[in-house]
Amino acid sequence: MMWEHGRQLAGMSKSGSTLSFDYDADGVRISKTVNGVETKYYTAGDQILRMEKGDDALDFLYDEAGAVFGVLHNGTPYYYVRNGQNDIVALVDQNANIIGQYSYDAWGKPLQTTGDAKIVSLNPFRYRGYVYDEETGLYYLLSRYYDPATGRYINADGLVSTGQGIGGTNMYSYCGNNPVAREDPYGQAWSNIQEAFNASRQAFQFLWQLPSYDGALPVLDAVAVVGTVILGLYCVGSGILGSTKSKIQTRAKPTSKAKTKENTQAIPKNKNAPQYWSAKIIAKQVVPLKALTYTEARKVIDSGGDIVCINRSAAIAVVKYYPTAIWDKAHGSWEDGYLDHYHLSTAHTNHIWYYME
């Protein structure tokens, strides 16, 4: 490996490939060259707005909280599905068809990638939403590179000691050796995923009350979701908020909790906000597809379809008319996007999921 300016990875060789990297004046990576083939990154602060490699151009879509929720590959839209740990686990097209899927171990090492579409391998956002370089097997976390095979950064922390006990004195450790419950998108300080989950859940509850909730994307006609998609939804905040220009922030930064509390208190309730959506499971995530009225929701489940409800009370309002209905706990661990739900009978043929108690 070759380094410049002390901490910037300038080049390396791996598996017969020669790589070089260029950075702007702020130290943000703007290009990667592998065996003479250059990938260019056009950035704004810490966000990659556009990526170009040969004939392929990727334009990334961000919500108002700064979280990436989709990508245009040569003009064709695709959307990210995340699990409860913020990992990108699938790419879907505008009709909610799965184009590709990703799986990882606890440290972020890719286990399996499926899907033949070119965008599946070109897509740089993977584990925890970090930028992944397939050629090196490393994640680029702005200030540092992270190796999931060893569970360590390849360059040291900028601080000699982070003041977090014995583990804090290891300048190469990732997330204090607790990758399951933590994330570190900037390579400078880890944060607890559960804190982000709690903040997102609170913001999510209030976001449904916004006057404008009609989504701009065909696949999610009327879905309103918060920035980090902790609840396993598509992240289309910009199209949903429209003229409301909400300032809700859900990323796990030091002040995010206070901002969320302050801003959500001011959001007026909207009695016309949807309570029900048709839904399906995509890459282990319950994904709402189309907003429904109460009557429409009843028709969907009567026909054997699945729905998701804003809360348990909304679900009970439906299932109370079905004497054979039974409650069932969410399957899998909390990081999966499964939800508590009801079935209309012991046959378990359809689902009435709900988000909050």
End-to-end distance:
52 Å
Main sheet summary: 12 strands, antiparallel
The Rg value, from CA coordinates, equals: 21 Å
Strand line-up of the largest beta sheet: 1-2-3-4-5-6-7-8-9-10-11-12
Classify the secondary structure makeup into a structural class. Answer: alpha+beta
Please state roughly what percent of the residues sit in beta strands, choosing from under 5%, 5-15%, 15-25%, 25-35%, 35-45% or over 45%: 25-35%
Q: What count of structural domains?
A: 3
Global mean pLDDT: 78
What is the N-to-C order of secondary-structure elements (H for helix, E for strand)? EEEEEEEEEEEEHEEEEEEHHHEEHEHEEE
Q: Bin the helical content.
A: 10-25%
Number of strands: 24
| Form type | elongated
Number of helices: 6
State the low-pLDDT regions, or none: 201-269
